[in-house]
Inverse folding.
């Protein structure tokens, strides 16, 4: 890749944390209404937004509301009135927001909300982890997970482009890991406003459902029932929502390509394959852990082990075909999660990958690694152990799954 | 052949109220009103005031041409109905026109009843039933000095007062022993009789006119006691009879008037009758009577009109109640219901004071009639207390002492 | 459209028989009073005879002289003195003694409403006589478009439907309406299966987020310059005082420019009559049933309008459908205030089904609730403070109201006493607020005159008895 060569000379280069990167990504997307309520580790993000608006860097209505429930509720109203909307939340905030959150995809409201992922109470904890985002993966929001501060900044305009696409019309969560990305500082090149404007084009967020005296309509009349037109209408709404989700895969790919052409930064839209050309075993990662994982892969390669890595960017819709294709030639797979799937008692990404691989003609053994809970570090050493376990699995040995990476950290 | 969904024959209170009722339910149905009178609608009750000059003839008109245009009703005046063919649903008029109707209201009212007194047909005499009568009588009155009035009912007494006030010497011959027979009791009558006597009117009560003869100037009326009363103006006011002759052979049942049921329907399909021509339910007796007063005409007209327009929610009429208000020489006399009743089953409470007379008639703690002289009361309230058979047991003494205050209280309570 | 007219209404419960009305009438008419107050059935009760200017006046129809007529312009039954022949037949046409023979002059007399400013009403010290301008409301709004389909599936006698139709008829099409779950969408305002029941943009927000989502609508329209849209809710009490409270409170605190109308039927009537925080003490509901151990709700209702006052909302008012002219006045002010800040209108709405009130007695229940002070009618703005729009003095006992409501049928004497005490306490508190706030306003208003400092001077401290610059 030739990212550096494509950089515009006029780009502003900042050294900022992930929350500020998200705030810049939001600001560049020119939302009309921004609603905020602070929660660790998202708080500085909304402080940046408030500051940008106070300083006139952003021309948006700032709604400091009384809780996350209302955060999403005011955005429902603003979006139905025709506005582009943005917010960010985390963990308990997401839980409190759940009632309107649950409703947003059904209303087909193309809003973007950053999830600064965090482990959820209880046990009481305010540190990173992806339990919050993973818990809501079935609700119907598109989920994209970022690896770096730059990707956070770029992914927010991309998310609007996807959400507002007429074939999609679904809300998007741009996820970045609490602590590591939210507070971690790195170089971020800000795209030019004109570039983002041209990329996003004219917004039209309520062509399908609006609250506008010039186009009076009833939004969300009651449907369903035991018979008659109601249930079939409800089924068509649900099917349509799935169609939007399916269509999003291609739209996400196209949006990332478009972004790359305009900015020179070509982010992998669905999954990124790292050193997978001749890999015999592979790790699957998601989010900011990927950097340490890549280091561990490089180390293993130096030792002559044919290890590769697949990073998931888009988790919803789940890129099942791309995953299956990327992992079709390996002999064993280790999936590293920062959350727990209760019931299956493994990592949620693990469970998804398992399902995707069912399409393959051969059965590939997998092992679930769960680490990075409650802000715990997943170090290259943890990944080295994971690689070793996966190689043992490929060799036909029994590996007890899941492996709790931080269980014996001191 | 002209036709109307609603054909109203007659143009006074009953017909006007029926028109109003019909239009409340059916704003557009074709309608026509035909009347034998040449004038726009007026009330016979106002005629004594036209005769006296108090009301100008053109100021007593109840509805003008614009009204009929506005409500969409053709108004055909000066043509009497002469026949009814219920099979063909048509009414024949004196000018030969045949009107087809969908629903017909017979509201032809009443005409003076001329008693069969020998010689009466040989002399000129007046009646007072039409505007023309009133105007004619007023013109003639100025030329006369002595007047003879046959009948001491409301019309006769009114006219007698007017004639007396105009300076004529007036004699009134009444075959019953009191004035206003049937309306009020003898004690009330006595006060009225005294007033007339005091104004120089000669009242010949309990006397029957046996002969009328023309004289060189004027007429002479002989009474059953052999006296002769002379005059140069004779007014016959011995009552009225319903105008039903044009219904002969139509199949519409006629007794004293046109017989009607609780919805004012006659015996013929799609034919109703209301007002002075109708013989309908009497509240007190439960029999069918010709009542001949405005309040009854209005009530009947309303019920008939609603029924003609197909009002599904109609309730049958409870029956008519006598209501009369009368002024003599400025003094009021009012009666409602069985105001003259007495005897078994009735409790009569009289106040016979120098400045007023009041008579309240109760039956089982319920008001059935009330009359007064020089003590006007709320006639509408008393009518409601009678009609609703309000039990007065709890307030009887207070009511007898002050019927106005208690009546107003009871009806104010009913308002809510 | 036919025309309706203003009338003089009589509240017998408020009349103490002082006779001021009759004196005022006699003075204005220079003769016998046209209004007659007579003793009522009970000691200290009074009744009235006065022309009600009937729509279908029988006195007119029985007049033989054409002297009486219904004036199509003002609704008065006019009497033409020059045509009248003094026959008194008209007195037989009135069942209420409202046109009667004048014992002095001998002619008939009747009320002509003093040309629209009746002296009797002005003279009444107890508000027993009221100038009812409900007719003007019909004239003003009767021709305006009904914003709901004819076939809303409300119960017979539904007061909430009445409120919805009146409110939206007044507000019209340039509005965005939120109707959170409850009877209002339940009867079909948002519609079923893709069909709407409303002509304005309407939304089924969550039970919990009505005020918030509306705030978002308003902010966006304000941002793009479409500031003339009425952004409003017709919400039930449950979604307002219980689970949606946070949203209402937050929107009020932020001064969101929305019109929030709470249609208070004192519980979750749509889902089968469960209790809410607005359900009054003693009420039977399906979750506060009446049995051997429990006798209805054991807590008092949350007073939401007073909570809104505590938020210093731009406008707060209570209203009742028994007093439509007042409701419309408040609606006008509430709409206006919603363009500047949070505007809250609380309308009491007896539920014939859930409260067990006969459908034809709902408005009577509304009226008794006010006459007994169970419901007080007032309005508040931060500038003018709180003021009663209907005097709470001379209330009827609350039991008179309670016995018209089926959900209170089981109440024993102690429970009734509790309710009466609670009502008295609320009125006392409101009176204190009304008195204190207006005293503060008066002190503020007086300050610039006494002060030589600029208009921007610090206002005098609260409860400062004599302000000296």
């Amino acid at each position: 890749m030739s990212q550096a060569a494509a950089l515009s000379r006029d780009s502003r280069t900042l050294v900022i944390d992930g929350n500020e990167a998200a705030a810049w990504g939001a600001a560049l997307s020119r939302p009309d209404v921004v609603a905020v309520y602070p929660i660790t580790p998202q708080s500085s993000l909304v402080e940046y937004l408030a500051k940008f608006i106070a300083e006139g860097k952003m021309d948006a209505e700032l709604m400091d509301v009384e809780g996350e429930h209302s955060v999403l509720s005011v955005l429902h109203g603003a979006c139905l009135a025709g506005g582009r909307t943005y917010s960010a939340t985390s963990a308990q905030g997401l839980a409190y927001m759940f009632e309107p959150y649950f409703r947003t995809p059904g209303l087909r409201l193309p809003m973007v909300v950053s999830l600064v992922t965090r482990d959820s109470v209880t046990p009481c904890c305010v540190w990173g982890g992806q339990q919050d985002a993973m818990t809501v993966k079935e609700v119907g929001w598109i989920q994209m997970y970022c690896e770096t501060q730059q990707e956070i900044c770029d992914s927010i305009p991309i998310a609007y482009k996807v959400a507002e696409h007429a074939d999609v019309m679904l809300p998007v969560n741009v996820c970045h890991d609490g602590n590591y990305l939210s507070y971690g500082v790195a170089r971020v090149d800000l795209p030019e406003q004109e570039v983002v404007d041209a990329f996003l084009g004219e917004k039209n967020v309520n062509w399908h459902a609006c609250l506008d005296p010039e186009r009076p309509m009833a939004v969300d009349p009651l449907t369903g029932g035991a018979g008659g037109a109601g249930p079939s209408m409800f089924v068509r709404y649900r099917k349509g929502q799935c169609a939007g989700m399916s269509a999003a895969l291609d739209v996400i790919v196209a949006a990332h390509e478009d972004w790359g052409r305009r900015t020179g930064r070509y982010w992998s839209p669905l999954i990124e394959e790292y050193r997978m050309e001749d890999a015999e075993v592979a790790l699957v990662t998601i989010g900011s852990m990927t950097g340490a994982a890549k280091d561990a892969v490089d180390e293993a390669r130096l030792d002559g082990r044919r290890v590769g890595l697949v990073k998931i960017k888009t988790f919803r819709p789940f890129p099942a075909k791309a995953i299956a294709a990327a992992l079709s030639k390996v002999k064993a797979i280790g999936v590293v999660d920062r959350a727990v799937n209760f019931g299956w008692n493994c990592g949620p990404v693990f469970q998804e990958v398992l399902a995707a691989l069912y399409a393959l003609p051969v059965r590939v053994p997998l092992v679930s690694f769960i680490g990075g809970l409650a802000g715990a570090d997943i170090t290259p050493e943890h990944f080295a152990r994971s690689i070793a376990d996966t190689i043992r699995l490929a060799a036909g040995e029994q590996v007890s799954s899941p492996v709790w990476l931080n269980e014996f950290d001191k | 052949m002209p036709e109307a969904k609603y054909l109203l024959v007659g143009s006074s209170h009953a017909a006007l109220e029926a028109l109003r009722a019909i239009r409340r339910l059916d704003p557009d149905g074709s309608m026509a009103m035909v009347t034998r009178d040449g004038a726009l609608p007026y009330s016979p009750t106002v005629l004594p005031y036209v005769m006296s000059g108090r009301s100008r003839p053109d100021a007593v008109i109840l509805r003008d041409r614009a009204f009929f245009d506005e409500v969409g009703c053709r108004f055909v005046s000066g043509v009497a109905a002469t026949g009814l063919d219920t099979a063909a649903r048509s009414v024949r008029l004196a000018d030969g026109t045949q009107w087809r109707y969908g629903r017909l209201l017979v509201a032809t009212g009443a005409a003076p009843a001329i008693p069969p007194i020998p010689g009466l047909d040989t002399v000129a005499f007046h009646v007072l039933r039409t505007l023309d009568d009133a105007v004619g009588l007023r013109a003639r009155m100025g030329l006369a000095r002595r007047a003879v009035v046959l009948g001491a009912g409301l019309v006769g007494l009114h006219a007698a007062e007017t004639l007396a006030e105009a300076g004529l010497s007036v004699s009134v011959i009444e075959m019953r022993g009191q004035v206003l027979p049937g309306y009020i009791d003898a004690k009330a009558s006595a006060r009225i009789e005294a007033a007339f006597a005091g104004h120089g009117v000669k009242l010949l009560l309990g006397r029957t006119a046996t002969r009328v003869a023309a004289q060189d100037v004027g007429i002479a009326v002989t009474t059953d006691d052999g006296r002769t009363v002379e005059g140069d103006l004779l007014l016959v006011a011995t009552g009225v009879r319903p105008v039903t002759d044009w219904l002969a052979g139509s199949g519409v049942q006629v007794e004293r008037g046109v017989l009607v049921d609780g919805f004012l329907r006659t015996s013929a399909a799609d034919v109703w009758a209301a007002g002075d021509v109708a013989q309908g339910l009497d509240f007190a007796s439960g029999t069918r009577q010709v009542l001949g007063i405005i309040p009854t005409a209005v009530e009947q007209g309303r019920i008939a009109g609603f029924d003609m327009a197909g009002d599904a929610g109609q309730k049958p009429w409870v029956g008519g109640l006598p209501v009369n208000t009368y002024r003599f020489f400025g003094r009021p006399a009012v009666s409602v219901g069985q105001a003259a009743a007495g005897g078994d089953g009735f409790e009569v409470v009289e106040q016979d004071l120098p400045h007023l007379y009041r008579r309240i008639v109760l039956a089982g703690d319920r008001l059935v009639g009330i009359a007064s002289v020089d003590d006007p009361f709320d006639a509408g309230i008393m009518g409601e207390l009678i009609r609703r058979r309000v039990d007065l047991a709890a307030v009887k003494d207070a009511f007898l002492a002050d019927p106005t205050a208690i009546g107003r209280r009871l009806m104010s309570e009913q308002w809510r | 459209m036919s025309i309706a007219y203003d009338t003089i209404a009589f509240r017998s419960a408020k009349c103490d028989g002082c006779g001021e009305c009759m004196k005022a009438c006699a003075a204005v008419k220079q003769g016998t009073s046209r209004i007659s107050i007579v003793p009522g059935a009970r000691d200290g009760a009074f009744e009235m005879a006065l022309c009600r200017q009937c729509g279908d006046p029988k006195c007119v129809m029985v007049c033989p002289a054409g002297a009486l007529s219904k004036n199509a312009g003002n609704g008065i039954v006019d009497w033409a003195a020059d045509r009248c022949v003094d026959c008194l037949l008209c007195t037989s046409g009135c069942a209420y003694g409202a046109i009667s023979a004048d014992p002095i002059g001998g002619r008939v007399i009747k009320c002509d409403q003093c040309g629209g400013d009746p002296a009797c009403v002005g003279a009444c010290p107890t508000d027993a006589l009221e100038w009812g301008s409900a007719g003007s409301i019909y004239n003003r709004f009767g021709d305006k478009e009904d914003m709901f389909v004819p076939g809303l599936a409300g119960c017979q006698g539904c007061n909430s439907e009445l409120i919805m139709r009146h409110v939206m008829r007044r507000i019209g099409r340039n509005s965005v309406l939120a109707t959170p779950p409850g009877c209002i969408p339940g009867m079909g305002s948002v519609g079923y299966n893709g069909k709407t029941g409303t002509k304005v943009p309407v939304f089924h927000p969550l039970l919990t987020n009505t005020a918030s989502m509306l705030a978002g609508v308003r902010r966006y329209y304000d941002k793009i310059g479409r500031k003339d849209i009425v952004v409003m809710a017709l919400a039930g009490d449950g979604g307002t005082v219980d689970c949606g409270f946070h949203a209402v409170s937050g929107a009020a605190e932020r001064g969101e420019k929305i019109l929030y109308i709470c249609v208070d039927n004192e519980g979750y009537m749509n889902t089968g009559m469960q209790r809410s925080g607005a359900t009054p003490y003693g009420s039977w509901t399906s979750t506060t049933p009446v049995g051997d151990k429990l006798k209805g709700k054991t807590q008092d209702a949350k007073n939401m309008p007073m909570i809104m006052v505590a938020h210093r909302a731009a406008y707060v008012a209570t209203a009742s459908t028994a007093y439509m002219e007042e409701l419309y006045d408040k609606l006008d002010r509430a709409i206006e205030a919603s363009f500047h800040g949070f505007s809250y209108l609380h309308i009491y709405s007896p539920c014939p089904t859930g409260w067990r009130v006969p459908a034809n007695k709902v408005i009577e229940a509304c009226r008794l609730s006010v006459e007994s002070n169970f419901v007080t009618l007032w309005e508040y703005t931060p500038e003018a403070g709180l003021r009663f729009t209907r005097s709470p003095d001379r209330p009827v006992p609350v039991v008179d109201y309670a016995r018209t409501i089926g959900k209170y049928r089981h109440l024993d004497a102690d429970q009734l006493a509790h309710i009466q005490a609670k009502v008295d306490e609320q009125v006392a508190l409101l009176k204190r607020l009304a008195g204190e706030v207006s005293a503060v306003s008066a002190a503020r208003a007086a300050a610039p005159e006494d002060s030589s400092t600029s208009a921007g001077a610090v206002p005098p401290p609260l409860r400062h008895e004599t302000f000296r610059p």
